[in-house]
């Protein structure tokens, strides 16, 4: 399922392509963009109501595909290449050069390519950007400077690190030796990717959960099987030992499928729990966080499987209600919503 941002990027690329290939067959155009013919038609239906401000018929793109071939017109303004003003070019160049100094950048080649192309296109503006420097050293409200500094040292000197790491899902601190592979930022958070000797596998550690990082006088070369994961595809990879959890969600809880990494989101099947409009499937290495989530959702969700999780949630909800002096009746909110579906 494509995100709105990804779809917008495709639509912006689609307009100039289709203008240059008037009469292209639907199947060929869909193959070019790596989508199905049905998805292409949905995009064309959206283009049909897009255009320049004014919303009059002549302001909208004219898209036709009834014959199996695609024709666009009245889209030249959108397809025209954007031109950067001098101040815009300078701002972009300074931003990209600043980004290049950020440690843990995992796609440096793409950044260098963008810098080279923009510098060439900017001409005189590129020389103006060279005299601007940005100090990106942040304040340290989360106390990350110490651990990150130690991890950078370990990466530079190829040394093993002893981590004291907080695992909130189990409310415990663990001490483990790791061979650092890289520091990276994903969605505004710092992570250490490393070979964990305790787990005997590659793991991602959130920097704000590292309470201490001691650089050891031992070689920190990761073993050959320590392969970096593709964080662009998915931050956390499923493990064969994970528990498969299936939930039915009422309308007020459908945000779960957007906020949490789920394997699938589909319409609630016929015969499911009556308030349900969605069924989501996810994997959890530790189901305790799922149990807490279900208690928050109350009567907005119901566990389809596993049955053991449904019973755990029901017992926790019943205990919570008892603490408030409330009976665990079928109208008991979370306790009722935690019952396994038939």
Automatic annotation (TrEMBL):
<dbReference type="InterPro" id="IPR057727">
    <property type="entry name" value="WCX_dom"/>
</dbReference>
<dbReference type="InterPro" id="IPR043839">
    <property type="entry name" value="PafC_HTH"/>
</dbReference>
<feature type="domain" description="WYL">
    <location>
        <begin position="149"/>
        <end position="215"/>
    </location>
</feature>
<dbReference type="InterPro" id="IPR026881">
    <property type="entry name" value="WYL_dom"/>
</dbReference>
<feature type="domain" description="WCX">
    <location>
        <begin position="246"/>
        <end position="321"/>
    </location>
</feature>
<dbReference type="Pfam" id="PF19187">
    <property type="entry name" value="HTH_PafC"/>
</dbReference>
<dbReference type="InterPro" id="IPR051534">
    <property type="entry name" value="CBASS_pafABC_assoc_protein"/>
</dbReference>
<feature type="domain" description="PafC HTH">
    <location>
        <begin position="6"/>
        <end position="119"/>
    </location>
</feature>
<dbReference type="Pfam" id="PF25583">
    <property type="entry name" value="WCX"/>
</dbReference>
<dbReference type="InterPro" id="IPR028349">
    <property type="entry name" value="PafC-like"/>
</dbReference>
<protein>
    <submittedName>
        <fullName>Helix-turn-helix transcriptional regulator</fullName>
    </submittedName>
</protein>
<dbReference type="Pfam" id="PF13280">
    <property type="entry name" value="WYL"/>
</dbReference>
């Amino acid at each position: 399922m494509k995100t709105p941002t990804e779809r917008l990027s495709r639509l912006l690329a689609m307009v100039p392509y289709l203008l240059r290939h008037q009469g292209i067959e639907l199947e060929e155009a869909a193959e070019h963009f790596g989508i199905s013919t049905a998805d292409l038609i949905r995009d064309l239906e959206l283009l049909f109501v897009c255009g320049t401000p004014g919303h009059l018929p002549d302001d909208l793109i004219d898209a036709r595909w009834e014959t199996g071939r695609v024709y666009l017109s009245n889209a030249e303004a959108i397809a025209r290449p954007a031109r950067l003003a001098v101040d815009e070019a300078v701002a972009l160049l300074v931003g990209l050069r600043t980004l290049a100094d950020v440690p843990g950048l995992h796609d440096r080649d793409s950044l260098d390519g963008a810098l080279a192309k923009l510098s060439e296109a900017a001409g005189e503006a590129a020389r103006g950007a060279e005299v601007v420097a940005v100090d990106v050293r942040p304040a340290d409200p989360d106390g990350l400077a110490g651990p990150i500094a130690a991890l950078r040292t370990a990466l530079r000197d190829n040394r093993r690190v002893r981590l004291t790491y907080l695992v909130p899902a189990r409310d415990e601190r663990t001490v483990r030796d790791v061979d650092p592979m890289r520091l990276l930022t994903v969605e505004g958070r710092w992570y250490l990717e490393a070979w964990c000797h305790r787990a005997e596998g590659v793991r991602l550690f959130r920097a704000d959960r590292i309470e201490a990082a001691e650089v050891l006088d031992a070689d920190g070369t990761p073993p050959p099987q320590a392969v970096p994961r593709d964080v662009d595809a998915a931050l956390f990879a499923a493990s064969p030992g994970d528990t498969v959890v299936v939930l039915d969600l009422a309308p007020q809880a459908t945000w779960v499928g957007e906020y949490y990494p789920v394997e699938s989101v589909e319409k609630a099947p016929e015969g499911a729990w009556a308030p349900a409009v969605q069924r989501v499937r996810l994997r959890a290495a530790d189901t305790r966080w799922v149990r807490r989530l279900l208690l928050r959702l109350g009567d907005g969700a119901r566990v389809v499987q596993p049955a053991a999780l449904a019973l755990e949630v029901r017992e926790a909800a019943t205990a919570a209600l008892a603490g408030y002096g409330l009976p665990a009746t079928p109208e008991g909110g979370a306790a009722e919503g935690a019952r396994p579906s038939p």
